[in-house]
Amino acid sequence: MTTTSPTKERVTTIGEGGRRFWLYPASFKGLWLKRRQWLAAFLIVLFFVLPWIKIDGHQAVLLNIVDRKFAFFGIVFWPQDFYIFWFFVVGGIVCIFLITALWGRLWCGWACPQTVFLEHVFRRIEKWIEGDAMKRRRLDRGPWTWEKLRKKTLKLSLFMIISIHFANTVLCYFAGSDHVMHMTFTAPGDNWSWFTFMAFLSFLFFADFAWFREQFCIIACPYGRFQSALLDEHSLIVGYDYGRGEPREHLRKGVESKAGDCIDCNRCVAVCPTGIDIRMGLQMECVNCTACMDACDEVMEKVGRDVGLIRYTSISELEGKSQRSIRLRTVAYSILAVFLLAAGSYALLNKREYSIQILRAAGSGFSRVQSDHVINHFQVKISNRTSKAITIEPCLPPGFELTTALRTWNIPAQSTQNQSIFVSRHLDKFSPDGKERLVVSFRREDKTIFQDEITLIGPAHED
Ligand code: SF4
Ligand code: SF4
Q1: Does the C-beta of 278 come closer than 6 Å to ligand 2?
Q2: Ligand 2: which residue has its CA nearest to atom 4?
Q3: Among 283, 286, 253, 280, residue whose Cα is nearest residue 266
Q4: Which H or E run contains 47?
Q5: Is residue 265 part of a domain?
Q6: In terms of domains, do 132 and 84 share one?
Q7: What is the pLDDT of residue 463?
Q8: Inside any domain, residue 165
Q9: Residue 104: phi, psi to the nearest 5?
């Protein structure tokens, strides 16, 4: 039983005057729970292991905004490649729209980090230390004793340790696991900004999983709010078969019931992590976690009735109509998602491995050398986006002379270098209008990899 009866008029966990009702979801068993536990275990391991996997010398997933380094399974993105990210991020959002239109809040119940960590890590620790719903409620309402102090201290200490580990792992995705490892063994004062960020994240996660909990899904998460716009009567939902269940009636020994299959045991409400009654229909608070499905199946098996009174279904199926997957919105989302992901893939496959930029050196005009030559100074900025060092050689067309500190330039992997070049031309060959256009080529292993036109300036003169 929950501490308050769910109503349609107000969020179950918020009572009169805005006071929070603390939920004590009961334990349950079932096939859906087992499936979710397997997926959660996989996702949790993936989350903690991924920052330590290196592909081609780069962290598997890295989103280092401060140093502007981004890597995704061996593909390294530079800030200039951000438009490719845009295609994938927007394409991913459209895919979530599509998944929601087809299969409802599958993400919330099965893969959202909030649900995965709350239900499969923090809540399990809480149940392990404080017991099932009744015991937890009794403990909270009871006076402070040494036993209560011991249990609360142990629980909150474990919550804090996991939150710190969680925060450090999140940091690995943004600062890089090598950097986080290095910071771990140096004094906090050497990395104040990162340390403060990590402490803030740890506190945030601790507060969320120890206290805020389902409020995040109900109040803070924008995805829940989108639900009514993204779902329609054909979308998959966790639904109660009111045609079969109603009118509900308590089971009475020796009395044959002519009512529906629901025995009004309230088990589905007791296990719900957001405290709602699924029998009231589709509600924004339902995260499609399937707990009520398992709980009700358990009850149905015990009373010898068919399972599936609460099941994955759709509003149209519950109303006895046919369920359609192909609808205008699913077709539109599919086309848009395919277009965005294809455009992103095309951009990714054609991503330039180098970028070379030639600019006139700031404030420089032209000078005369050896009394009969005009010389101009340029700056060349070369970015090597590959994971190997490269050697580049600048070349000029005949009639122009090149002066550089080094004939060839070695650019280390994933780095940018600035080089100065001086281009000169004999005054006799210089165009009378004082401007000469020429193409500068850059060669690597005897292949031209980049060409750009520059303008040489000199004195205008009569022919
Ligand atoms: S109503 Fe059922 S599926 Fe929805 S949140 Fe509650 S227990 Fe989970
Ligand atoms: S668990 Fe099933 S039988 Fe019990 S109240 Fe919920 S819907 Fe009815």
Answers
A1: no
A2: 265
A3: 280
A4: helix 31-49
A5: yes
A6: yes
A7: 63
A8: no
A9: 60, -145
**Is the pLDDT reported for residue 399 higher than 70?**
yes
Same domain, 428 and 342: no
Neighbours of 271 (CB within 10 A): 23
Atom of ligand 2 nearest to the CA of 240: 7
- Residue type at position 261: D
User: 104 alpha carbon to ligand 2 midpoint, in Å?
Assistant: 22
Q: Which ligand is nearest to the CA of 292?
A: 1
The mean pLDDT value of the chain amounts to: 91
User: Of the bound ligands, which one is closest to the alpha carbon of residue 25?
Assistant: 1
Mutation probe of ligand 1 site: the residue of 28, 238, 279 with most atoms within 8 A of C-beta: 238
User: Would you state the structure tokens that stand for residue 448, as one six-digit string?
Assistant: 């031209």
Q: Single out the residue in 311, 333, 351 at which a domain terminates.
A: 351
Q: Which of 296, 330, 351 is the last residue of a domain?
A: 351
Distance 310 CA to ligand 1 centre (A): 10
Interval 360-380: pLDDT, tens: 998 888 888 888 899 999 999
pLDDT digits (tens, 9 = 90+) for 252-300: 877 777 889 999 999 999 999 999 999 999 888 899 999 999 999 999 9
In a domain, 194, yes or no: no
For the chain, what percent of residues have pLDDT higher than 70? 97
Global pTM value? 0.83
Q: Is the CB of 236 under 6 A from ligand 1?
A: no
146-175 helix and 177-184 helix, angle to the nearest 10 degrees? 130
> What token pair was written down for 39?
């997926």
